[in-house]
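dumping these here so i dont lose them again. two proteins, back to back, each one seq then structure tokens. dont judge the mess
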Amino acid sequence: MQWGFPENVSTFGGEIDSIFALILYVTAAMFVIVEVALIYFLIRYRHREGAKAEYIHGHRRAEVIWTVVPFLLLALLAFRSTKTWLGLKSPDRFPRDALELRIHAKQFEWNVTYPGPDGRLDTPDDFVRRNQLHLPVDRAVRVTMTSEDVIHSFFLPQFRVKQDVVPGMETQVWFQATRTGEFVLGCAELCGLGHYHMRGSVTVHTAEDFERWQRQEAAASS
């Protein structure tokens, strides 16, 4: 059993983890405060023989506090996460020199289209691999995704990437690996009876190894 997040291997993973940690600490503190208050009120105002109930219309100060404090906490979380969210989700902020890939999802597989040695998609040397995502280390990767049938969710836990893939829409994500290795590509949306085996492999190569693999695969597909 693993406690906490899986290993982070992306450039922005640490930022996302810090936002999750902040949300966890805030919600944990609120949970403790509410539960302690609940226990106190259960004991303080428990039934007593001969005690007479008293009607209370309200308490303006308490109502202001429990309205303003959650508002400020939510504003803090929104302010803390907005820059990161826009940097990850706004296509106009994606790195311009990113490697372009295309993924077409369907029950129950990920079909990845790679550019050939020319480095450009939609040219004769493109090739497709099923459930195999190969990436170069230390280079941004921009993925454009479509779905053939139902909603899928492109999930790379070690990269802190999760993006729904919706029929009739193009969705995009970007990320950058910080080390080489083998990782997991999963679907985080219940997409049908075969959802449990909609898994792929992620291989992060050195730049030289990726170029070599790219040339070999393009030649094998020609």
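---- next one ----
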Amino acid sequence: QKLKPMTQTNVLEGTDTGAMALQETLSNSQIVTSTVAILPFHVNFPDSDLADLKRRILATRWPVKETVTDQSQGVRLASLQELMQYWATKYDWRKAEARLNTFPQFMTNIDGVDIHFIHVRSKHASAMPLIITHGWPGSVFELLKVIDPLTNPTAYGGKEEDAFDVVIPSIPGFGFSGKPTGTGWNLEHIARAWSELMKRLEYNRYVGQGGDWGAGIVNDMARQAPEGLLAIHTNLPATMPPEIGAAIGGAAALPSGLSEQERAAFEKIKTFVTKGFAYAMIMGTRPQTIGYGLTDSPSGLAAWIYDYHNGEPERLLSKDDILDDITLYWLTNSATSSGRMYWENGPRSLISAAAMKSSEIAIPVAVTVFPDEIYQAPESWTRRAYPKLMYFREAKKGGHFAAWEEPQLFAEEMRDAFRLLR
């Protein structure tokens, strides 16, 4: 079913009174005052916030240069200085803002938190509703490139019957969504909120997709199996068997008889856990402490996010892509609130089948494995983890931010994965 026409009621106008007031008024746009209202949303930051950002970038106090010739100590000084120079002198947030405002955006309040979302309906009457969720340090920006290929497939090599209606919410604490003032907004809670959102949009048959934290959210949606959710797709499946997790943690020996693909997956996971997981441990235990630095220094925030892209963010993304995302975090003051996702979800590993309870999922699951993901889930582990696996494919290219990096390929995967459910 389609969203009924909305009336612009229960709206308060924000005022341009600086960054702090702007955060409280949801970026100078409409505030939801009803717990069931769905109201239009428009992005418009004041010039003063952009001027303040530039001033802070140019006033960066730089650390000493790294003592190695690689990225083993983190983001290299020259790399970040180059990015910061571009941010301060060439990057144009107004282009990103205008791009966001080309899409229908809305706000609704669920369980006391304002939820921002993009909702684009296809012109094709048979379109399948699809809710897609970003992760950290992503945002709705990482999903904008797939909107047109999904809603308008005939312009991208697809057929009319491949069309989707697309719903892209901002996770609470991220972007334009509200910042929870209490605890409890974990994966399960957000999954229930997304089900409520789809209900408010009057969709009685829909599918879900997610990567990174979005994968955890869509995984829990599938576990909860709300009425109307037909199936899910994930590009970061929770497939790591318990014995593999025990071996990585040193509690047991690596099982014998692993295939070459399974052993390769083990090595990738071990490398990630031992060398690339520090960011998650810090935000999982001290999101407030790390947040002070990230909130006060745009260069610090940029380094923190830039480093997450495995040291080569511009391999598949442009500087503008990266800075659209980082600037959104800065302007919405969401470094700390987004980092609490790790604190809220404690020791749960997004790739652990046991921790994510993937065996409890009783609805169909589709999985696409991308070659530059943090690990490549073997099909053997995937089928073991998801009893209702209906689709499995190893993509030829793409990585952790698959929709951002390879939007056409990502859209094709959505068409193929959910075609049997139409």
